[in-house]
Amino acid sequence: MIKIEKFSFKYKGTDKFALHDVNLDVPAGAFLGLSGVSGSGKTSLLYSCCGVIPHFYKGDFYGSVKLNGLDTVETPIAELSKIATIVFEDMDSAFSTDYPEDEIVFGLRNFGHTKSEAEEIAAGNMKEFGIEDLRGKQIRSLSGGQKRKTALAAAIAIKPKVLLLDEPTGELDPEAKVQVFEILRKLNAEGLTIIISERNENLLRKYCTSEYTVQNA
Ligand SMILES: Nc1ncnc2c1ncn2[C@@H]1O[C@H](COP(=O)(O)OP(=O)(O)O)[C@@H](O)[C@H]1O
Ligand SMILES: [Mg+2]
Question: Where are the domains of the chain?
Fold first, then answer.
């Protein structure tokens, strides 16, 4: 699903590689956990899997990254984002609307669904994630766990093949962490390929079916 070969990347304006000589093959259906110390390149690797690098973050790009056979350098991000969606670590800055139901509908509308289609999918999706009770509540008033579930629900609404998550449980209490991982396990069992950067090694080992340690470049 994702094939990374001899890949190195240096952010524009820096003289150090953020990632150096990465070779990684992520098969369809994987639930891959990324580990590695802070600054090792986990976020950069997730950005590279979905084309955020090099389309939004420019720099020196060596080697190749293929998403579902598409070269991420040559393929427009609009095409790549139909295949892989990312939930950023700082999801607050990524919300586009004020209410959970609008956030899910917004993403679907961007991918060409009609308003009524989008509303129907969003309703089913909120039910699946157990967040129906958040309807009509301001996103900024939600707890960390509720925001995470909202961000996840919006990310998978468009039915990507790959879901990328950057430290999605950082600010959550232990119970909410487990809830998020249980949702991910279910989505993975339904065929979604997942790559997650997670500091909590216990959760990573318990839920992920493979692990890749990002090495300091
Ligand atoms: N936008 C950026 N511009 C320049 N350098 C960056 C940027 N983002 C990350 N880096 C650098 O890239 C390296 C890897 O960072 P990152 O991918 O954020 O690692 P991690 O997520 O494992 O903490 C670090 O040396 C970091 O300073
Ligand atoms: Mg990071």
Answer: 2-213
Using the Cα atoms of residue 130, residue 170, residue 152 and residue 143 in order, give the sign of their dihedral: positive
Alpha carbon of 61 to ligand 2 centroid (Å): 19
pLDDT value at residue 98:
97
For residue 174, whether the previous peptide bond is cis, meaning omega lies within 30 degrees of 0, is no
Neighbours of 141 (CB within 10 A): 10
Q: Is the CB of 51 under 6 A from ligand 1?
A: no
Q: Whole-prediction pTM value?
A: 0.95
End-to-end CA distance of the chain: 24
What confidence tens digit (pLDDT) does each residue in 139-163 have? 999 998 899 999 999 999 999 999 9
pLDDT, tens digit, 9 for 90 and up, residues 55-67 = 999 999 999 999 9
Say how far residue 98 (Cα) sits from the centre of its chain.
21
Tokens of 7: 């890949």
Helix H or strand E encompassing 163:
strand 162-166
Whether the CB of 213 sits within 6 Å of ligand 1: no
Q: How confident is the model at residue 88 (pLDDT cuts 50, 70, 90)?
A: very high
- The predicted model gives 179-191 an average pLDDT of 94
CA distance 158 to 149: 15
pLDDT of res. 179: 87
Question: What CATH architecture does domain 2-213 belong to?
Answer: 3-Layer(aba) Sandwich (3.40)
Report DSSP state, residue 172.
S
Q: Which ligand is closest to the CA of 10, given by its number?
A: 1
